[in-house]
């Protein structure tokens, strides 16, 4: 275990991005506290200033752990497997358990180091007074440690199964955010009800660190929707988090053996060559048979766009149909659950939830499609081949961007039935829905452009994906965090300015979601989104041109 | 050297500098249609730089390179149609079958759909890859990938093929098949530039060889020309009937050779063999042989060990020689 741990830990530390992450964490958290440090000559006896500082500090720290930690375990095993070093490790006397422990502790040691860099800032918060060192700061670090453990075990499990580092990063971030945020949704919908569903949703909620951290920072009343309850749930979270981590760890250890390599090469079965019976059967079962021989790319289509669809794991038509169907069903279910389960919620709340569903889909799906548009080509050697063809930079760039845009439009279109139900319940909302949909479309354009532009500067897809997720989470969650603390410490002008950063705030505001309705964000939010989108597209185009031109 | 009008490739005083570092120093090369050029040199010699300039991926600091009259810098788009380039990395795309992979690159070159389908069938047949058209590209073995890579370069029917290490990592059987494929392509009138570290393979297929080290062309011509121009030492073996007198023969040979050549004389009693390197002419060597026979030493065979491209390469890379 020791050699694996040493190599893992040192390997992370040797990467320049890790050092930058540590430095950034130390600087950012110190700055956050310094910004709240009392400057006047009046003594804050109530302790509200320090509580405000603690609130900002804890929220940022949770965000930092959720954004940074998953990236390291997600690529840890899959990269070794693809490079062939995992086979060497498995052929050594080290057991699967020892390899796992080494990797787990290596990643965790780095997370611990990152948390340690924030200790001076935590000490400063304590020095301001009004914050309990054990019951608040101590428990916060305990919660964050469990979040890091959970993210690490999720990342390592995904890394064992994933085919490529970037796929592992995408899936890991998706799962980590699902555990942190989506686990709250069922409770929000079943709140106030009894029965087995309410009980299950209550337990699911225990897996999310969000309510616990909110409770620790004393923000009992600022965020609703199932995040906050009267009891803190700290211990339940610690137990549930560690329990789930243990299960995931055992599952990963059981898979770390030679069977990982016991896979034959795909022989490329094709329906056209099967017997008549099989062909008829597949025609009945599949709307679009994935194993049918495809015809050539039509001349009127951009070949790069078609290639992008074909090379994506879920880009083939049969997968897109499934994705669209799932989105449509989820949007209808959400509308149904919201209208049946909580009659006291207005149509505006349902609309707000639909907007959040759409934006969540946009933020989670778009980077996974667009972050690696250029980096995957450069990493796999395809870029040099593209350069040697007669395709122009414009055709390459537009083909790649449109492949993502079409997918996202399809997904969004699939979520429209929820809006239809909404406008059927309250027809006067039609204009609001249209404005909200325009905002969501702008969110798609902006997210796509930013993801593509940021990702184009990387030569490795995994690092591009991580960077893009971090940037987008900051763009989308940052304003929501500011909004969550809109009563204290942030005031209305700051919240309004923060909500302008992404069209999410505008969409929630025009749909009349409680808590957002009072902000006037249009048309300023559209201008901000539009300009951001144009700037990002220009940056993307310049980077493509730069990479295509002779060295 | 042929007249420039007959040449498909013409490289004139080509140089490339990266700051103070000279990657390519005044390179001059020419190649006729249907010829195969073996472009060899140690790692970092300037092969990839030359290839990148030829395919329009890099600009030279000075000099020019033309392929079928098209300038590699000014006519970049025409060059892409004239050249089929296979880099040393395959460039696989996930979830794509071989036929789809070729279809994409055919479409990227603007080949109409119907003509593309026909062309894909042709290149699959030429490269012997028809049976793997439904396989996923990422699931292909290295040898299969190399074949598909060659098929890809042929799609737009280029005049010249530039293949970077096509035989690298192939098993002996696949290497023979690749060799036959390259000869077949040359037979089809294609001009080929092939880099490889497997020099015996190159020597069997190349019409001309260029040896480059430290950015400079050290030798260029047919293999025979290079061997002759290098005036390198030849290796000889004396096979005896019995092992007892091997040391005696070895001593006699040492006495007959120049002092600088004496260290090369090696006696192999188990094989009844004496081996040595010398720059002496055939006439001088016949005197040595006559002396050995005259002393009653039972010489069964006196033979020259043929030198190959590998020896020429080592000879060039170990000591600088003027370009042939």
Low-confidence parts of chain A: 221-228
Helix content of chain A: over 70%
**Sheet with the most strands of chain A?**
none
How many helical elements of chain A? 26
The first-to-last residue Cα distance of chain B is 11 Å
Q: How many independent structural domains of chain A?
A: 2
The SSE order of chain A reads HHHHHHHHHHHHHHHHHHHHHHHHHH
In terms of DSSP E residues, the strand content of chain A is under 5%
CA-based gyration radius of chain B: 24 Å
Number of helices, where a helix is a run of at least 4 consecutive DSSP H or I residues of chain B: 11
E-strand count of chain A: 0
Output the structural class of chain B: alpha/beta
Beta-strand percentage of chain B?
25-35%
Topology:
The complex is a heterodimer of chains A (551) and B (324).
Chain A: H1 2-14, H2 16-36, H3 48-68, H4 71-83, H5 85-90, H6 96-116, H7 119-127, H8 133-161, H9 165-180, H10 185-190, H11 196-205, H12 209-216, H13 234-255, H14 276-285, H15 303-311, H16 317-341, H17 347-370, H18 375-380, H19 382-387, H20 393-414, H21 416-425, H22 430-455, H23 461-484, H24 492-499, H25 503-511, H26 524-548
Helix pairs in contact in A: 1-6, 2-3, 2-7, 3-7, 3-8, 3-12, 4-8, 4-9, 6-8, 8-9, 8-12, 8-13, 9-23, 15-20, 16-17, 16-20, 16-21, 17-20, 17-21, 17-22, 17-23, 17-25, 20-22, 20-26, 22-23, 22-25, 22-26, 23-24
Chain B: E1 7-18, E2 21-32, E3 36-40, H1 47-54, E4 62-67, E5 70-71, H2 76-82, E6 83-86, H3 98-108, H4 113-126, H5 142-154, E7 160-164, H6 172-187, E8 191-195, H7 199-205, E9 208-213, E10 216-221, H8 223-230, E11 234-240, H9 246-256, E12 266-268, E13 273-278, H10 282-294, E14 299-305, H11 309-318
Parallel strand pairs in B: 3-8, 3-9, 6-7, 7-8
Antiparallel strand pairs in B: 1-2, 1-4, 4-5, 9-10, 11-13, 11-14, 12-13
